[in-house]
Amino acid sequence: MTYTGEWLLPGELGHAAVLLSFFTALLGVISFGAQTRGIQGGRTLSWQGLGRWAFGLHALAVVSIGIVLFVIIYQHRYEYHYAWSHASRALPTHYIISAFWEGQEGSFLLWMFWNVVLGLSLIRTAGRWEAPVMVFVSLAQLMLSSMLLGLYVGDIKIGSSPFVLLRETMQAPIFQQTDYLKFITDGNGLNPLLQNPWMVIHPPVLFLGFASTLVPFAYAMGGLATRQYGEWVRPALPWTLFATAMLGTGIVMGAAWAYESLNFGGYWAWDPVENASLIPWLCLVGGLHLMHAWEKRKQSLPSATILIIFSYLLVLYATFLTRSGILGDSSVHAFTDLGMSGQLLVFLFAFVLSAAILLALSWKRLPRQPQEEPLWSREFWLFMGSLVMALGAFQVLFSTSIPVWNQIFGTNLAPPADVVAYYNRWQLPFAVLILLLGTLAHLLPYKGRPSLPLKKWLLFLIVPSLLLTAGIAVPLQYTNWTYILLLASSLLAILGHVGLLWQQRKKWLRSGGAVAHIGFALMMVGVLISASRREVVSVNRSGYAYGGQFDEKQNRENVLLWKGEALDMPPYRVTYLGDSVSEPNHYYKVQYEERNKNGDVVDRFVLLPNAQINPKMGLIATPDTRHYTFSDLYTHVTQVMDKEATGGGKEWGPPEPLLLSGSGDTVMVRDGLLIFEGITTELPGDLTTQLQDAEVKVAAQVTWKAMKETYQLRPVYAIRNGVEFRFDDVREEAGINLSFRRIHPDKKQIELAASVAAPEPRDYIIMKALRFPMINLLWLGAVLTTLGLSMAVVVRHCEKNGPPSIAFSKNDDKG
Amino acid sequence: MSKVHLFLLLLIAVAAGVILSTVDESSSYEDFATAEAYPGKEFHVVGTLHNPSEMEYNPLKDPNLFRFFLKDQKGAVRQVVYHDSKPQDFERSEQVVIIGKMSGSAFEASKILTKCPSKYNEDSIEVAPNTRTSLRMLKSVAQYPFLERTL
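Predict the joint structure of the above. Result:
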């Protein structure tokens, strides 16, 4: 069977490019591997050169796959399953880009693309580390490109190709026709939840974060493989900082996305998918600090190596969790299962096993410091703090993995009923410890000091931060000790690091660490205040009896707003003004008026929470937020009046028979007068021609005087070949449907039937309004953290190759 | 290395605490019978919507009250009360997970998770002369009242 209208060339090119990318990655593994093992090629063959060629070709192949896939989606070639299931004609261009990475295949491709960019820059800059590092980059690319193969070996499917045709994936009678494509005019479209500007920028950043954790991992593994146990740390440092910044930014962007445009009323819900990206970040940060301890004091190398290796393995584990479908019920936003969990496990175990083997073989030889770190030294507290971070990561990991434990042990555990409270109970103390240990470590010098300058610290640090804590905690009415501790330790961290910044003000570029720590502490303050003092503005004050069965402390966060009717939600008076439609979004105008004590309006603004009323998914609400400096007012609709059901297609009441005998007969129909003027054979519209050969054709002349307007109605009655025909006069705008039922010649009467539309229901919305105080501290802190990390990337990159400016560097690098 | 060892021991203790607390505080997927046996304790109950016509949500009366009947996997049916607005697309879910506790004869849910047949990608093809376009055509026909005929 040959089909017409299909454009098969790009698919074939795409398949070829996938195969090319797979085999060039394999060749890359082999040649860089041989180079690393020191195997000599012949006189003409350089393994390193071959590896570079292979990776160059690989890069070309990956970029080609991307271009072909994009062309297919952009051209709306719905013969391809990927285009059909992720795009539609109504999608604007920027969401076509999002459609590209909505599916698993596209997001693997995005990941591969970043790996290629990182790999190419490693080839340029890694110098003698090129081969050992590129082995692992190529290995990762081999695994990732296998995810796109879409080949069957026996019954086992390897990978899922983005170039599969629609007719190959689905069984439908339509495919019996050779010209089936004519009937497939539109795609399934991008999930409306993802039609959001954040979906354009968040995935690239997050995947760059995931991809960049590969580089420190590859350095660590390369260091183990080539027995350069400590030497990998220096060149890997800027990469580790970069990965920390990118992954962190990706996570915060996800939080901002959730906050700005999803409707769960917050930025972090401890959802398994969120956790899955947080765990590797925590590990990476721990590893980053221990790498510094090794760089400066030759301490903690085994722990640093382990944490860096774990952070990438945890990225792979996160991939497995989110893409294998194992999270099932426990997450709101996992990918749909493509039946590749087996392959994902192979990917994970390949890396776990190679890491375990390399670590086991070299464990005894990893350099360790014979004597213990002094107690009051930076390196000791760096070590402590990093292990606490790792422990925090372990707590999130263990709890998030509940569905995995169920699979392995056949248990039937469910996540804790109140997930947020559960995680907070553990993570708040961890955050306090990390803030305190981080500050302590930064205040102490490397090599240590005999005792603490307690007097100075008390005077400039501890007492001021405790006073500040009291100044903030009292007005916030904190009674929870964990909150007070978190606040105090954050403020201590801020003051401590501001002090450090002041001391280093002449070498400001080198204070990236202090800036990042201030940022992190600010984030913690923002999280604490915005979450603990989140306030429901839209408290429902209309009391209803629930039969006394339920206690009164239920959350009553939704309120009903009638159109045009103001409702007091202190300090605001809120009015729903009406909606406007700009397909596919319906915007609901909600006006807020803030009054002072005298009742004068001091502030008035309109928020436009919107909703898509999607035929496939129901109402998808997007909040609108008023940003103040010190708080945010967040509003979203939870229910709206279904105008399709009540307004668009009118609901007609039952027809009411009306017997009329002569002109001038008048009856009352709803709120108007219906006056019968008489019968005519002059038919309205083109009915005269249509009913040429009818035996009987008459129209009733009726005037309907409604409240505002008068309508002339002409229902028609005809008999053709002995069969009755009726042509009703339907006036949607007037809300009347008049039908000419029959003629009663015996009574000299005609019978009409009027049905009237149900009265327009009053418009309303159900909405929720929340206030998040001090949330801007969270975003400010995130920006500062990224800024500080970026400063550190610059500094570390500059000293990576040149001689380090730190004094004790004699035995560092042999090369 | 004594203080590091001491610290490591402490870490192991906390890690053990993490594991124990996860097991201890994790809820479990149960049925209504268990939830009734331990009133006040929170469980996850998996089931299907029973008798959709008895579902009750009237936002005009109380936007924070949603009641429906759920049939658990063993076939027991209980009323579920949820003090929030009705989750979107609730009727279409093929499976419902409710998290909460028994309170009297009803189950008081604090959270509802719905599982739709397949989240968004319905594996059915809409071809051009499809039901939706033909519906749209019907509507445009209705604009011309005189063409509507009743036999």
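Chain B touches chain A through 73 residues (CB under 8 Å).
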